[in-house]
Amino acid sequence: MQRPLSSFAFAPAVKVKLINAGFHTAADLCDLRPLQLSKESGISQQEAVEVLQTVRHDASQGAGAGSRMTALELLGREQAMGAIVTFCSALDSVLGGGMPVGKTSEVCGAPGVGKTQLCIQLAVDVQIPVCFGGLGGQAVYVDTEGSFMVQRVVDVAKAAVEHCSLLADDAEQREALKVFTVEDILSKLYLFRCHDYVELLAETYLLPDFLSQHPEVRLVVIDSIAFPFRHDFEDLSQRTRLLNGLAQQLAQMANQYNVAVVLTNQMTTKVGNGQSKLVPALGESWGHAATQRLILHWEGEQRLASLYKSPSQREATVLYQITGAGFRDVLSSDHASADSSAIPSGNAPKRLRTQADDHQT
Amino acid sequence: MGSKKLRRTNLSVEICSRLHSHRIETCRDLLSLTPLEVMRVAGVSYSQACQLLKTTSQACAPKMTMAWELWRQKTGLYFPTSLAALDRLLQGGLACGTLTEVTGPSGCGKSQLCMMLSVLATLPHSMGGLDKGVLYIDTESAFSAERLVEIAQSRFPDYFLARERVAEMASRVHLFRELTCRDVQSRLQNLEEDIISCRAGLVVLDSVASVVRKEFDPSLPGNLTHRSNLLGKQAATLKYLAQEFGIPVVLTNQITTNLSDLKPATSFKWNSLEGSSLAAEDSGYVTAALGNTWSHSVNTRLIVQYVDAHCRQIIVAKSPVAPFAVFKYSIQSDGIRLEGDDDQAGPSHQGTDPGLQPIRVRSGFACNLTRGSSAIRDMRGSYS
Question: Is any Cβ of chain A less than 8 angstroms from the Cβ of B229?
Answer without folding.
Answer: yes
